[in-house]
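#structure-requests
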Amino acid sequence: MVLARAQRGDMQAFADLYRYFGRACFQLALRILGQRQHAEDMVHEVFLKMMDTIRSYRGDAPFGAWLKRLTVNACIDQLRRQRHSGEDDAEAVFANAASADADAAGAVDAGSLLARLPPRARAVVVLHELEGYTHAELAVLFRQSESYSKSVLARALKRLNALVTATPLSAQVLPWPNKI
């Protein structure tokens, strides 16, 4: 009933949807974007867009899945804008990344390991490994070939493996929190 009220423009219903889905959207955006402030901004953008487009929600998929798709698309668009502005050149970042990892001491969790990846590589890992997207779906999202996401994923997983291997035995690797 909250969804029907939101589709009619009820602001309290929008607030209820935010309370119910906001954290899950934030966690997904944080996993993809890697920075808390960017993730917070993205959640606000997604919910503003949701307010504008909720009338077009037909119910073909669960509302949470529809909202998750809005979040993923918004994050990919953000990464695309960063790439076009020169903030994210995955090839250059991977080439220069080895020197940045000398400080891998202490406790390491999956989130901090993912944060060490370039933004697009982190997005591919999160979407493929944690969210279950196929390479065909990633190709559409990133407007690249399937081999692009396969290549980025292989290099990212190799890099993550090297980071875990380089971590001292005294460091504890904590598991990634459950999926949303």
